[in-house]
Design goal:
heterodimer; A: 3 strands; B: mainly alpha
Chain lengths: 215, 327
């Protein structure tokens, strides 16, 4: 029922890099304040570094969004293997095990583990039973107002209907040449088999609108 | 006939209502907050309806924008409905009074192995360095050895680490960062079939042993032992317990029994994470003691030793007796 799409190396790297920049700027900002306060400021600064090192991801993962700011920007989230929100124990485990994932240097163990697995888990994720997943993205709507409706010349299977509607949804993002090529493949639905061109495209998109339910 | 647009129009109201519920729960849309509060029963009912609609939309191959909208909606509602806070005050109390000492006891063989892995190198290297002081150079450089000697010399204003411009507070921060880092390494090393844990336990044991042997041989035993006696009650036990958690992970990987290796690992880490909560707390306590009590050179060594004895007794009693009764 619930579909989880595990995140790969690249997007997780970007999220990590962004989190790293955020942490670094907090540490630099705090250093300026600390240098004014002297000894006690330094103490809090060191404790802050410690807390950011170990608990920055834990705190954010346990918040409602289930993601650090970096992950949220890239549309990622940490969940349990079964899709439930991540538990405190699992979040602690996966983040403390960063030590192991880091070894021998530069998160090499994590990168190798992640590349070898289809579900994109690093060692910490394996032990904690967690996944980093993509949050579903909104898709553009397929309703085109400027297309005359055309009834299909033959009954269409559900998959064919879905493909037509998906084409209509992508129409605005494609170049007109490419759109014509793709529409030509679907031309039989409007009775234009083996023809191509802008006027065929308009008719195919018209069938898509009809299938969507504008009639 | 049911078409995608008709389907959308039919259920649009329910979906918008669920969206509003979720927005309110997340504290978005400040103006929505002024309305009535969200009814949990209503939100759950709407969530189930949205799940039904998602199943229908998928089965009927409805357009991607309808399916993904429903996916987002059910996904967010699912996260929201099953999200629960577990690190509240009552849970914290239960960890301290029951779960932590019980988990330590239920892993007593791992504790024993971790203690041996730590203490054996400590004693061996300690004796080696005591009888052959030049051995210290195979553990640390000559400069470091000299600085240790200077740190614990009775003439130093404060012991442990030299303090010119820095304060007790700063050392507190330093000790926390350093010691908790070591403890977490001992835990995480367990993922490499336990070898990492064995290495970090033995390495840290050997290092402390070398230091103790060297300083004893140099005749600085009085300052050194009165310095370490108190906070080591928390620090050494915490390191050993972190090692315990690491050994459990390693054991789960090497001998998963009837479980699959991955499942055994997940179970082991679920069982031992409470040990890490306890270790973190103990090391914060150890750092406070080390920074504010152990290093105070104006205190009489007798006072330090008595407090140390009380702390050791308290820590051991805590692990042996605390949380025995069901409660």
């Amino acid at each position: 029922m619930l579909e989880l799409r595990p995140a790969g190396l690249a997007v997780r790297y970007y999220a990590f890099a962004l989190d790293w920049v955020i942490r670094l700027s907090v540490i630099y900002g705090a250093a300026m304040v600390a240098s004014v306060l002297g000894g006690i400021g330094m103490a809090f600064w060191i404790i802050l570094i410690f807390a950011l090192d170990w608990f920055y991801p834990v705190v954010f993962e346990l918040s409602a969004s289930g993601a650090t700011p970096g992950k949220r920007v890239f549309g990622l989230r940490v969940v349990m293997d079964n899709g439930l929100p991540v538990t405190a124990a699992a979040s602690m485990t996966r983040n403390l095990l960063r030590v192991a994932d880091f070894l021998p240097l530069g998160y090499a163990a994590a990168i190798i583990c992640l590349l070898l697995r289809a579900d994109g888990k690093r060692l910490g994720d394996l032990a904690a039973g967690t996944l980093v997943v993509h949050q579903p993205r909104a898709e553009s709507r397929a309703v085109l107002d400027d297309v005359p409706l055309v009834a299909p010349v033959r009954p269409l299977a559900p998959e064919d209907q879905a493909a037509l509607i998906a084409l209509a949804a992508r129409a605005s993002t494609l170049t007109s040449d490419r759109l014509d090529e793709l529409a030509a493949l679907a031309a039989p639905v409007s009775g234009d088999a083996r023809r191509a061109g802008p006027e065929v495209t308009v008719r195919v998109l018209g069938v898509a609108q009809w299938v969507l339910g504008r009639r | 006939m049911m078409t995608p647009l008709r389907f959308e129009a039919l259920y649009e109201d329910e979906w918008t209502e669920l969206e509003t519920c979720l927005d309110r729960l997340a504290g978005r849309r400040a103006h929505a907050m002024s309305g009535s509060h969200v009814s949990a029963a209503r939100a759950a009912a709407l969530y189930r309806r949205a799940c039904e609609h998602l199943a229908l939309a998928r089965a009927r191959s409805y357009p991607a924008y309808v399916v993904t909208r429903l996916e987002r909606l059910t996904d967010e509602a699912h996260q929201r409905i099953y999200h629960h806070r577990e690190l509240g005050f009552s849970r914290l109390r239960r960890v301290v009074t029951e779960e932590f000492p019980r988990t330590v006891r239920s892993h007593k063989w791992y504790v024993a192995v971790a203690a041996v892995l730590f203490l054996l190198p400590t004693i061996t290297v300690g004796l080696l360095v005591y009888f052959q002081p030049e051995m210290i150079l195979s553990v640390v450089s000559s400069d470091t050895a000299a600085s240790f000697e200077q740190m614990y010399s009775p003439s130093a204003a404060s012991i442990g680490r030299t303090r010119d411009a820095s304060t007790d507070w700063m050392m507190f921060g330093f000790y926390i960062r350093n010691n908790i880092g070591v403890a977490f390494q001992c835990f995480a090393g367990g993922l490499f079939a336990g070898l990492g844990t064995v290495f970090f336990l033995a390495y840290n044991g050997a290092f402390s042993g070398a230091l103790a042997g060297y300083l004893t041989e140099r005749g600085l035993s009085h300052t050194f032992y009165s310095f370490v006696a108190t906070h080591s009650a928390f620090e050494l036990t915490a390191i050993v317990i972190a090692g315990t958690a690491g050994l459990r992970l390693g054991h789960a990987l090497l001998a998963p029994g009837r479980l699959r290796r991955r499942v055994a690992l997940v179970e082991a880490s679920r069982d031992t994470v409470v040990l890490l909560y306890g270790v973190t707390a103990m090391l914060v306590l150890a750092a406070a003691v080390e920074a504010f009590w152990s290093s105070a050179s104006w205190l009489n060594p007798i006072a330090k030793y008595s407090v140390a004895a009380v702390c050791w007794a308290a820590v051991l009693a805590y692990f042996v007796f605390q949380g025995r009764r069901a409660g």
